[in-house]
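This entry is listed as follows:

___
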Amino acid sequence: MSGLPLLLAKSPKYPKVPPELTTEIGWLSLAIVLFVLYWVWTRAESVRRSVLALEDPRTYAVLRVGFALMTIQCFWNLRPYWRMLWSDEGIFSLEEARQRFARTALQGWTPDEGFFDYLAVLRFFWAKHSVFHFWDSPTFVEWYLYAFFAVLLLYAFGVFSRTTGVIAFLMMSGIYNRNSLYLEGTDTVYRVFWFLLIFCKTGHAWSFDNWWRCRRLRRRGLLAEDGSRGPPVDASGTALQPVYRLVPAWPRYLMMAQLIALYTTTGTVKTGSVWARGDALYYALNMDHFYRFEIWTQIISSMTATTVFRVMTWVTHWWEMCFVVVGLGLIFKFRLDHQDEPWYREQLANPWTRWSGRIALILAYVAVYLLVTKAIPYCIPESEGGREAVRAARVAAKVHNFRLVFGGFMPVVIAAYFAVGRWPLRIIKPGARLSVIPIPAWSINQRWLRDWFTGRRVWLTLGLFFHGTLILFMNIGMFPFIMLMTYAAWFTGDEYARVGQRLLAWLRRRPRLAGRPRLSSPALDAWFAPAQAPEDVPARGRSIPNLVVLALGLLAVGVLFMRVYDKVPDSAALRRAADLTLMGVAALWIGFVVARRRDSESGLVKGLGIALALLSMALLIARVYAAAEVFDKQDLVELWALVTLGTGLIFVVVRWRRRRRAPGELGGGPAPAYTAFGRTLALLMVLWHGGSVLMTLFPSYSVFSSWRGSARSFFSGWPQGTATSQSWKMFAPNPPRSNTFMKTVIVDDEGWRWDLQNNSFELRPNPWIWNDRMRKMQRRMVGKGKWYLKYWAAYQCREWYLRTGGKSRAVRVEIIKLNTKIPSPDQVTRQGWYDPRKLKVNTSVVQTHKCPNVGDIPMFMKERYGFPVTEEDREQAEKAAEREARGFKNRRRTWENRRNFFGKNSRARPKRSTTSTRSSEAAAEARERRAAARTRAGAAVAVDDES
């Protein structure tokens, strides 16, 4: 009966939101997006010199080596369960795995015909692809994993790093897609960061790829030997190549943004009373599944549960919730580092642009304040407060606290930040002494505030202590290690080089090591030599004008608005407008060509030509779409993407005359990456992926229901296709306050009951060093994943047959749940420590399953292990083959009527009508058909995601 309260528990009930409030919240959300984007646009050059800039490549080298080696350890830890998880002898047979996990991936495939076309192959890799959907014998699974490790080792050494990185990501995703029983937060971290890692140029430093490149350049005399920078040309005037070329920085910024989203989300969802009391760390450390040191953990907990542990819990919770502050610190640091450089001053030279951006930021702040204060009353469940008066008091308290912080404390802090920027406070003057001891100077200025309140030294150090505590005292596998590995993205390559230089200098000063040839070799100095200087990077094309960027940004917001609120333009009207405008543009274009010949240096004429080219391209694309008569919301997204990419392409193809860049013109600032087209692609990737993660993690309260679902669908399955779907609800809203175990009992054909003892209730090593995923799998099976128990029972039936050599058969399998309640912190503080093995155990039978085929095994397993095959076995195998063939019978017809990658039926567009009335009717009918298809497909996707 211990599980009855959980079964009877209801989902939180929230107050009904008035329709006018949801509309108001939607407009406030749109206003926030507009104001923030406009402020970013006023600092467009800063975006080009930060997110879209070049930087030292050694950060990516550290990430490459760390992620490759930790991925090997992650899957080696699962070595005892390779056969059980991924082979056809495991929990899921090949047919069951295809039905459960691969319906979408194998939508265009049958066993007889293979893949129908190249789009079917793309669908396979975009969905839950896995080689184990075709071959999954235990031997194949083992060789696949060993091949995976070999690819990871090649990637760690930087051998064809681009290729091996992509292959490793695809192989890892294929493993994850075959079975989801063992997945935990650790695996989500691997997937979301590995996807970003494949976009990094990881082979440009500390790799075989770069060593081979330098070797070839050295033979040709084209390598800068004197340091990485070297002279720009040799004696003959030939440009020399640096040892360490600069690489694009945007993947690293996405990694930092992902970490901010991870911590902030997991902090904000911890809203339970256990976290508020400060008891979460105590319960986490005292779970039998997690602690490393039995008895010692309970002894220490009895002394610190209500003191040190509570302080640590509160600090951890606030650190997670406020981790977004370190993102603001990145913006502050970039401004402080580059505010005196020419390009930075030039972007703010126009007072109108400078002040309008500041006003937009203030308005965004006010809009956030209004949105949160209006939404809070509808984000607190009715059941949480009990009586209405109690809930009203909680709502009033939360609104008051938010107003106090956001409306009072934060404005004071912001005002103080700008005040010390203008009038720094000198606390200790330079040259001061305490007796004969010199005292370092101390001034409170913007950099000091940034370093100590929003900088890495505080926030990453707290993370180091937090995850270090988890490593020392909790057995949770690779999670804390891989989380610390993501911190490597917060340091630049030149910082790693400086650390390496200091370490090398320290080793050379050691008496025992001094004078050793290998340690004094110049080759070691080359490892930490400076990277290519930004001023040595050749200019590649020109930037897209800021006004054009603003126009494209506003167009994107308009597309998003029409997508959310179902505002689709009439195709006939769009076609007529495009026809009329194209004629006018053609006339203007002829005038532009004539004017440009007369005055080729006129900035006004050049600007007019750019505008006309963009307008022509947009209208031509719109005309093509309008000709199809059916113009829906997803067409708007495609149209905007094509216009944006075409804009970047224009500034690559069209070469305008411009002066050469003077030496030192960059002012020491970061050099922009790529050409205009490349930066456009990179920015689209940053915005698209960032928006996808934001909408995936955005709170699902009903007050946001008017636009959240449509805004999430804007990204057309991007999280699922890129394996970056994520949820960070670890220990939320409260951590477990009891231990849950699972016992599996086999009843054989003679009536004997056998406890398999494959659970952590009987098996609890002390100390527990190596993590065992079976604990996680069993907690899931008797918790929210009870649907696994059917397959677990069938697997144990087959294993019993193999274990007994066919001499005994299992008749049924009983799944029993064991539960022990962890004493509260107050109890152990008063009564002293407890022995976890002496806690009262509550047992309950969760499910009982009869063994398929009375405990027999399939024919292919009998043939594999040399058991005799009967006619009954052959008949059952034939029936299974017929059943599988029926599942693929209509697969080709379904594929031909499929929905394409953009969510539209490829055959939904009718032929062109002669009147606008017929066009509108056809469009309405097509939209209705698509809506019905979306409903059916949505149900299928929901089932697939649930599995």
